Amino acid sequence: MLQGISMNQELSVQSGWTEKLDQLIAQHKAMAGALLPLLHAIQDEFSYIPESVYEKIAKGLSLSVAEVHGVVTFYHHFKTRKPGRHVLQICRAESCQAMGSEALEAHAKQCLNVDYHQTTADQSINLEPVYCLGNCALSPAVMLDDEVYGRVTAADLDGLIRDAKKAEAQG
Ligand code: FES
Questions:
Q1: CB 112 within 8 Å of CB 125
Q2: Model-level pTM?
Q3: Which of 5, 27, 120, 125 is spaced 20 to 30 A from 81 at the CA atom?
Q4: Is there a contact between 80 and 68 (Cβ–Cβ < 8 Å)?
Q5: Distances (CA, A) of 121 to 3, 40, 107, 108
Q6: Beta bridge partners of 118
Q7: How many angstroms is it from 85 CA to the middle of ligand 1?
Q8: Long-range contacts at 14-23 (CB < 8 A, ≥ 24 apart)
Q9: Which residue, 45, 43, 50, is CA-closest to 20?
């Protein structure tokens, strides 16, 4: 089950969407193959694409809701839930796997209580897989927001998560 934002929060966020969403649909509807560029524009604007807007998108582009749903869920890039304030990426590519990234990802999933592409219940952290951070010499590698870390242990990961949450509490 996806963790995170409550239905009330989601609805209140979307109440401010209507005008901008209409504008984006109007800007894209005449394009050939408009769905993907429109989805990118919506996510760039709002940072996610909730299911409740699929119908409006479908109507605007003369598609079925199922087609919109199919494309949004096919690409992991598209978020259907409001993303967390931090993004933690764990490298799943070969060098990192050889150096224990699978155990690291299991640890991250357990302590954050999320799977990949999900956000913690407190909306703090998104957990994402990544395929090589260009830091193979220091595998296993993770990236928290814009910072890459190498030779990361489970204890290091706990520390990164703790520091991110502490910085938020102080900020
Ligand atoms: S394989 Fe993980 S950083 Fe390259």
A1: yes
A2: 0.70
A3: 27
A4: no
A5: 5, 25, 17, 14
A6: 127
A7: 24
A8: 14/50, 14/52, 14/53, 17/46, 17/53, 20/45, 20/46, 21/53, 21/56, 22/56
A9: 45
Give the per-residue pLDDT at 130: 95
- Cβ atoms within 10 A of the Cβ of 158, count? 13
Ligand 1 centre to CA of 137 (Å) is 8
**3-state SS, residue 92:** coil
% of the chain beyond a pLDDT of 90? 74
Q: Reduced to 3 states, what is the DSSP secondary structure of residue 81?
A: coil
Asked whether the beta carbons of 140 and 104 are under 8 A apart, the reply is yes
83, 124 Cβ separation under 8 angstroms? no
Long-range (24+ apart) CB contacts under 8 A made by 67-75 are 67/35, 68/35, 71/35, 71/36, 71/39, 72/39
Q: Quick one: tokens of 28? A: 């894209």
| Candidate from 105, 133, 151 with most ligand 1 atoms within 8 A of CB, to mutate | 133
Query: What pLDDT, on the 0 to 100 scale, is given for residue 156?
Result: 97
